[in-house]
Amino acid sequence: MTATNPTLLSADELEQALRAIGAERYHNRHPFHRALHDGKLNRAQVQAWALNRYYYQARIPAKDATLLARLPTAELRREWRRRIEDHDGDAPGTGGVARWLKLTDGLGLEEGYVTSLDGLLPATRFAVDAYVEFVRDRSILEAIASSLTELFSPTIISERVSGMLRHYDFVTPETLAYFTPRLTQAPRDSDFALAYVREHATTPQTQQAVLEALRFKCSILWSMLDALDYAYVAPARVPPGAFVPGTDAAR
């Protein structure tokens, strides 16, 4: 199969191709993530990761809202609305975004500084905004397919929680409380998205589109770690205006 002359895959073959993309390109393979999980980063580098990842977490509900507005049936809207509720919560202080702020607080970052986005790496902003725009502008099928990185997230979450608790004395189970609900939410969401893609990607062209959508999403997550690695792992090259370890923003 080639991009210029693709052949039609069975649903099972398409799923295998999607999973192969994750095996090759998911960001658990990135050197920065390996260092994070293996205890090779210092506290300031972990802070930089959490601060930049906050922007991704905070924009996920907006990304999902752009898709929700385009979904044609109540059934699909109910399914996708649940994702927004998972991240935004149903009351102040609830939901995944609020739990991520507990993580940054536990790492010693001022909440106002985190939410101001003043310390964000430029590449983080560009990457996350590109993802929101992709979901807003591409077909519903491509938008749903781009969420399939959730197929691979339970593995990375398990590695992250166990590794960080084992290696960092400044990390506690309470700090990492964001991740516990994701162990059930992500498989539920990816099961739905995968079933939708298997059912609706029924031509060589639409199958290529969903494969490219997943590659794009993997590239977004990978590029965010590239930026962190470049800026904060020796020799550090922090760009102007981004978070500087040891400043007043980090307690």
Secondary-structure class: mainly alpha
Describe the sheet with the most strands: none
In CATH, what is the class? Mainly Alpha
Task: Report the count of strand segments.
Answer: 0
The helix/strand series, from N terminus to C terminus, equals HHHHHHHHHHH
Q: Low-confidence parts lasting 5 or more residues at pLDDT below 50? A: none
What is the terminal-to-terminal distance?
A: 54 Å
CATH superfamily: Heme oxygenase-like
The percent range for helix content is 55-70%
What is the gyration radius calculated from CA atoms? 18 Å
Mean model confidence by pLDDT: 94
Shape: globular
Number of helices: 11
Count of spatially separate domains: 1
Under CATH, the topology can be stated as Heme Oxygenase, Chain A
Which CATH architecture would you pick?
Up-down Bundle
Describe this structure in words.
By secondary structure, the protein is mostly helical. The chain has a single domain, classed as Heme Oxygenase, Chain A, CATH 1.20.910.10. The chain is 67% helix and 0% strand. Helix 1 (11-25) runs parallel beside helix 11 (204-232) and helix 7 packs antiparallel against helix 8 (140-146). The model has no long low-confidence stretch (mean pLDDT 94).
